[in-house]
Structures are given as C-alpha cells and as structure tokens.
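Pasting two entries for a bug report.
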Amino acid sequence: MTFTGANKSISLTVDGTASSVSTFGGSVAEVLNKAHVPVGPDDRVSPALDTSVENGMAITVDKAKDVKVNLDGTERTVTTTSNKIQGLISQLGIAANARVSAPADTLLASASDISIITPKAVTVIADGRKDVKTTTAATVADVLAESGVKVGAADLVSVPAVSDVVANMVVKVSRVNKSGTVSEKSPLAFKTSQSVDPSMFKDQTKTIRAGVAGTLETVFRTVSIDGHVVSRSLDGTRVLTAPVDAQVVVGSKARPAATPAAKAGATGAKAPAMSNEAMWDAIAQCESGGNWSINTGNGYYGGLQFDIQTWIGNGGGAYAPNASLATKAQQIAIANKVYAQRGLSPWGCAGAAG
C-alpha cells in the first residue's frame, strides 16, 4: 500500500502477509487506520499503537483468531494471535515431539481444526513380553500396531481398541484358544458271567477266566487363556481296550448232612470202676473248675488237665484223642494209673486232695 506524498516508508505485515506503506507521520494506530486494518482488543500489534512512526519502521499485526483444537481427545477452542501451528503449539506449552494433524508451518487461517496428541507413557503386555514405551498414538489399536501386536478375533484386550490413549495406560492382550483338546483315561469295568455245575456243591465256586478291566478314553474340548485352561466341555469317548468278562462256575449240589462227632468213650473201650473219685473231684475243681470236657487251647485237656503226652502215654488213646473228649470215668481211670506211678506230683492242685 502506498500513500501519495508520503515521506516515510513503513513495512506492514498482517497475519504473515507483508506490504509497504508511506505516511507523513503520526502513530502506529493512524497508519493502521489509513491502511484499513482494524485492530481488535485481542490482536497483537508491534510496536504499540501509540508508538510514533519512523521511516523504515516495521509494523506487525497478528489478528486474534479462534482455532478448534482436539487435544488428546478433548475438544476446545483456543484464541491465538499465532499465525502458524508452530506458534500455537508453543502457546499451549506442548512438547515439540507431539503429533499434530498438520505441518508446523501451516498458516492457522487455513487450518481451522487441529488435532494434537501429546507423548504418553504406555505399557503393552502380550505373549509373555512387556513393552514400555512413549507414544503419540491416538488409540489403543494404534499402540498395538506400533508394538507389532496382532489381535485375533477371540483374543481379549484389557482396554477397548477404539479407546483414546491416556498417560500411564497398561494394555494387556490375552491369547484365547477355543480349539484345544485334552483326554483322560479311566478303567472300564468287566462283567461276570456264571454257569452252574451240578457236580459241585452249592458253596463251591470255580473261576474259569479272570476278568480284566478295559480302558476308556474321554476327550474334552478346552478353552484356554494364555495357555491356562479355563473351561472344558465333553467332546466324546472311545474304548481303547475292551474289558474281558470273568467266567465263574458255581455248584448246585447240596452237601450231605454232617455225621455227628463221636462222643467221648465212643471207641467202645470201657473204663474201670471209678476209685478215688472224691479225691479227683477235689483236684478237678481246682484244676478246671470241675469242667471235665474243658479245652482252653493251652495244651491241657479235661477236668484234670492232662497234656497229650501224659494222656496217650498212659493209655488214654483207647478212650479219646485227648482228655476233654473222654468221660469223667475214663479220665479218672488214667489219673489212677499216673497216681500209682508218680503220686499226685504231676498236678499243681495236689493240695486240694486234702
């Protein structure tokens, strides 16, 4: 812009666009008014409006403008006198390595909407690895892509993939496998078949073939997360080894009635008349409580407690195998034989005879 007859040349730059003006004098405000450059309360003018102009002076006007800024996912309107995005970034105090949607030298007049993502510390955990990094990625999906982590359709992500990245975020990817299988083996019981043998007694049995348990395999489908099974469902079973059934023969014949045991003295041998009966009764009362058929299993038998050697050695075998099976008279008969040879010394209760 040139003013006729002006004696002072002024350089005027408005929002980065430069021009030359000439004026006879006055103040910066007068120059701007004559150049039809309106100045708002938020505009930045250098030098100040009341400054007197001089030849060769440079006047800069940065108009205040409202710029829509999306800062880390939050929309806001910022009033700035910066002409370029670079100045806006500096005004907001944002780190130089922030990610901006347009180049730093872009004029703000041509970039009404600006997206800015500041660097943030993020931890990505996947496949047994932990990746701690600083990123300007916008979303969780972007962070995973930066870390080279691919997410399968069944995998679980601790934060939705579309979520905005925030400072100190931890993103964990859990691998899900729904196609695993596991098998278990268990015994398969055998059956027992019976047949009857009429030549065998009812209380007799005979095993023709021993039973052998088989093996059953049960297969389950599994769902695992990071290698750990969290659920399973039955898929099927199959017989690995068939069981071998047992074969048993049982008798059907009744046993004959048992022949009663021969009573003492059943040998037919007759005992002599009892002598010294009162003496032997007294000794028997002491030795066995007067029980002439006692057999306690201690190796001594009958009322007078004969051992087998003494009983048989003195002819007791003619009456019974041991004294407990013989009659009182037969036991006294043998006792009198022993008494005739040895007196009462064999009996511990000899004193009971009086």
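Entry 2 (this is the one that rendered wrong in the viewer):
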Amino acid sequence: MNNIYIYEFKHKEKVLEVLKEISTTVIFCSGKTLNQSEIVKEIKDFYQSNYQTDKIVVIGGLYLKDQLIDIFSTKILDTFKYIPKREESYLRDNITIYTFDKNRSLTAIQGKASDKFKSKYINEGLQNIFLKRGGIVESAGLHHFVFPSGKHCNKFLRTGNILLISSEIYFIAFTLLNRFNEEIHSKIYCDTSSINVIAFTLIELKHRLKKSFKNDISVESFSSYDGIQNNSISYHKNSFFIISASTSGNIVEKLLKNNPIIENDNIVILFYLGESGNIRNNIICDLTISNKNQNGIKEFESYQKDNCALCKTGSYALSVFGDVFLLDSPKINKHIITVNDANPNLSKFVQQFKSVNRINTILKVNYKENTSTEAYEIFIDYSEIINGIRENKYPEYKQKINHYIDQYVPSNVRYIVNLRDQASKDLSMYIYDQINENYTHERKPQLIDQNSIDSINSESTGAVIVVGSCISNGKNLLYLSRALRKHENLRILYFIGLTRMQNEGSLNFLISNLSHGNYGKNTNSFHSIETMPCDNSSKFNSWLSEIEFLKELTLFVEDTYGNNALFKSFIEERKQIIYKSLSNTQRGLSNNLFYPRYKFQTNETEELILRKNFAFFNFDNYYQHVSQSDVYFTISNIINQLRSSNGSKQLIQSPYIRNLLDPANFDRFNDGIIQASILRCARPEELNYSLDLVASQAMSATLETLIRYNTQEQGEALLEFLYAIANKKMSLMKEHILKTFSSEKTTSLHPFYKMFTDYILANII
C-alpha cells in the first residue's frame, strides 16, 4: 500500500473566461512502478471520506510515463470505478496527467496544464501532510517549550512527527528537486536527524530521474542551533541545508552569519510559520494563515525568557535536548557502575593484551589507519599482536589462532583476500605461512589485496578466505561479500582476528548477512579468534574534540590574559600530544590520555596511574604494567556494555527517561585515572546533571572536595573534571557552577587550574 499520496484543495481557475473556485484531487505517484489494484483500493478509501472534486490531477516521475498513461488514461474506468461520477467522458475532460523531471518541472502528457494549479499544489500538499499527521505539538499546560532561539511557547512545530507514510515522504522530497542540484551539492545537512529520511529520499528520486547520477551524496545532521555554534563541524560551500521547521527564521540568519561560505540559495525551510520577511525564498511550505492560504494556521504566541507569561503561571519550561524537544519532565535514573556490569570476558581480554611496563601497548586510543580526519576512540593495534606472535608473545592468543587455522581453513583454498589495512595483510601472511607446506607449488593459494578482487578467475572452484584483522563495523566485509557473489563455485570463509562491533546485535546481523548464500543462511562461514564489543566512535572522539576545545581556549587566553606564554605553552604542548598520536609512527595514545596533576607553585606534573586492588581485573601483577589506555579501555567497555544492556540498568536515552552515571561513581572510584576515564568515555547526556537538582548538588559537592584537596591524591583528576565542564561534556545547574567556581578556594589553585575555572565562569554560566 501507500503507492500514492492523495489530497484535495481549492484554487482559482478561469472557466469560460470567468474566474471560479475549482476543487482538485491530486494523486501523487511515489513508487518506481505502479500497481493498479493497489491504486484502485487507495482511491476507493480516499473517496469514502472525501467528496468528488471538479478536477483530478495525477503526478508521477518521467520514469512512470507509460504506466501513467496506461492506468490513468487507457484503463481510466477501471482505475476510478469507485468514485461517484464515473462517466468516461467526464473523467477524460477533467483529468490532467503530469510527469516531473529531475528539476521538478511538470509536463502535461494528457489534459490541460494550469499555472494556477502549479502555483498552489506544493504548499497545499505539504500543509495537508503537516496538519493531518500532527506536526503541531501542544503542551498540556503543566509545561511549555523553549525554542532553540530562546523563545518560550506552549506549541512547536516538529516535522519528525509527520514522517509516517512513504508516499508522503516522497512527496516532501519531490518538492525539493528544483532546489537540490546534484551537479553542485555534494553533501546534505539536516537540522535534525529525524528528517534525514527526507534527504535520502531526495537522493533516491534524483537517481531515478538521472541514471548517470552518482549516489555518493552524504547526509548528516547538525542538531539545529547547537550544530551552528559547534566549531567542530566544518560546512562546505557546495552543501545543501534542510531546516525541518521554523517560526522565526533566525536559524537561517545564524547559519549564514557563522558560516559566510554558505550561500543563502542552498538553505531551505520545509515548514514555516510567521512573518517570512527576507527568508521568503528559503521557505518551501508556508503554514501561516492568510488570504492566499485559508487552510493555514495562526502564528504561535511566544515570549522572551525574562517576560514569559507561561512561566509566570507556574508552567515549567522544557528545553531542547540535542535535536529533540522533551515532551514531559523526564524520569531520571542514576546508575552506579559495579563489577557485574562488565563483560564476563573483559578481564581475561585485558590480561591477554595488557601493556608491559606501560609500553608495547595493544589497547590504545585516538588512531585510525589511513586517515587524518577521523580516529577511533578505542584503537586496537592488531599489527602489534601479529608481530608479537612471531616473537612468541601472547602465547594464549597464538595457540588459539593456530587451532582456528587447523580447524577451519579448508584444504582447497585458492585465494586469501585481505582487507586494505596493514594488519589484515600481516594476518593473511601469517595464515599463508601456517598452511603453505600443505600445498604443492602449483596449488598454493594466491594472496590478494581487497583492491585486486577482480583478478580472481571466474572459473575458479574451491574456497576463498577473506581475512580481516580487527572489525569494527563490517562494511568492507559486506563489500567483498557482494563482489564475490558472482563466483558461485567458490565457498567463502571469513577469518577475523578480532571483532569489536558495538554490541552483540550488530555482530549477529553482520554474520547473518555474510553467511547467507546460494544454500541458505550457512552457505559461508564466519570465524573470529576474539570478540569484544567496543565503542566504535571515530568522529569527534574525546581527543579530537579536545583539539577543537583547545582552539577555543587559546582565543579565550588571548582575550583574557594577553600574550601569556605559560598558558600558550600549556595549550600547545597538549595539542602536540594529541596530533602526534594521529601519526602512523606513534599510532595512538597509550599514556598522556589525561591531563596530569600539577604541583602547586611549580610546573612539575604527576601522571594519573592505576593503584592496586582495581575491582575489574581478576589477575595480579598489573600495577606496574598497565598503561592509561588499558584502564581507559576497561572503563569504556563497561560503559559501552551498559549502553547496549537490555536489563534494568542501562544508559539508553529517550525523551521521557534520562539514564545518568550517578555522581557517586566519582566517590566510589577515587583513583584519578578511573575518574578521568569515566569523564572521557561518557557521553554528555550521561553526565547531564543539570536535569536533576539532587545530582547537580552531589556533583557540585564532589568538585568542591577535589578543589579543596587538589594538591593531594584525592584531587589528582581535578583538571579532567574542569575540562569536562568547560567542554560541556558534564553539565550542572548554573547556580551550582557559579557557587563552586566563584568560591575563595579557587583563587589559590595552580594557574592552569585557574585558567579553566575562569573559562567556565566566562563561557558556561
């Protein structure tokens, strides 16, 4: 069903030189093909609750031209057999069939074209969807909403609510065809991820209408006003911006002001309510009631924060959270991390790959091979594992990998295909060396890189091994799976050194796709030596975000302290530590993950280290060996486990439930390195204590204790706490921030600490 979107509206039209009001039914065909029986059913359903109109207009893509003529002209009586007036002559005289091209231009292929119709059908069609599907959200009275612009109102527009029916989504995307130029625009930004589907549908329509169109357009969300002010997001001149809805147009002005490279013509507002002014050309659908738009709605009455009539009645103001409005005061759950929250295999995994004397690290942070713009939050250096095996390190893993090779690698292997990264090449060579003696010279398997997959002989029979070192999402494996489908006589075996998918569900989905083939779900086989779910963030991870923050801090230092060489040196040294970790020589961070403790009145530092009796390690002799990244990996893994949990304790967020990491965690785990790890790997929503008075008070008390004992071990992670607040990773109620950082105790802090508290008071309050 939902092959078509049907609506009706009225417009002026000249009939025998007299201007009359004409009612029109619009049938928009959204599918790549048409199914007459389903169309007949949908037309029948529509007319059971709607009157027959004077005119019928059918709209479909150029790719549907022949089918449109067949169903709505040749078979017109069958198609409209359930409407009241079904005489063939009446239907033919009052139906117009349009096709549209990639620029949304309409061409009448039957019937008479109408400029009056063309001037109104888009606004009417969009407005009908918006109002029918509940695009207006109204509060019940106990609370009201704060727009991203700062205005207070008891109603707001939410486009995400209306995206329910596929044909209607296609209609919305269709209205953007003339604004999105596939030859210019290489990226689409949506102000909220809830409307990303419109962008993807727009790309799909372009692809249908232009066969040469390369579907390499990326789609991202910039989270409304937050994204505009986020300096870590770089927009390009050839980007196309879709704003879901607006009642002021301020978002367009701010977008252009903060990003001069963006052109006004590349910004559209899908739904707008209010005085359009100088943004009229940006608006796709104007919802505002007027003489020209009798079916529109009145402007919302809104108020400034300092003079809000709703606040004066006791109504509670609910702010935007990310790109979602909270529809009610959410329930707050606060969770304390315990040993039971860890993956049962975590301790054994870390023991197997832990550092030696805090070097030779496997479990690192902030690196991704072959890119300088992204870096995995967690980086597992598999090349170090393979090199170590050849040097008789990691004996348990070496024994396991050899057993897997003996058990699962078949005797008729023809090809060993490795993924692009160096570690996958190393693992392929290791497998080859292990099985090499089992083959005669003529039958030895060929080693092939992923990029040379086309060199496989189409007549080959036997087996092919696809080798991956460390799999985080499986995209390259899926690519190879598709590429190898044409080789029907080759059985595929996926041999993976370590899988680190986000959660078990993601891994099972990948395996089911890779294993499926001509003989069902177990046609191909998948074997992973080790499996450990991990956070797979690679964009704006904790350290990439820190670089952007340090740029802001530099500007603050220049404005506040002038040419302070001490502060500038501090910032530059920290930036260089992070930049070097992205290099192919260093390959991530093992230590220096966190800000150290600075001794008072000197610049001597003490790095954060793990002390004895760490609750999450079930092995001894780690105290002198584990690196900072080993500890970070452990804490990150536990928190990631909670994000994927199906139990009562979970860190999954919804508009109505907020799951926070309890401030008590920072008292329970008083090693600075553990506290810093929690702060770094947590997400802002998990440390958003501004949502709860008790949590904010508790966190404020913890901070005051850290400040009081900043020269002792108890306060060793203070700088990491200050950074978390300054970078908006952790949020407290503003009165608690002011109370904590305006106290006399902060005046005696080390200058570097004071620099951060000054920044917080200037930028966070």
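Dev reply: Rendering is fixed now. As a check, the viewer should reflect this: The mean pLDDT is 89.
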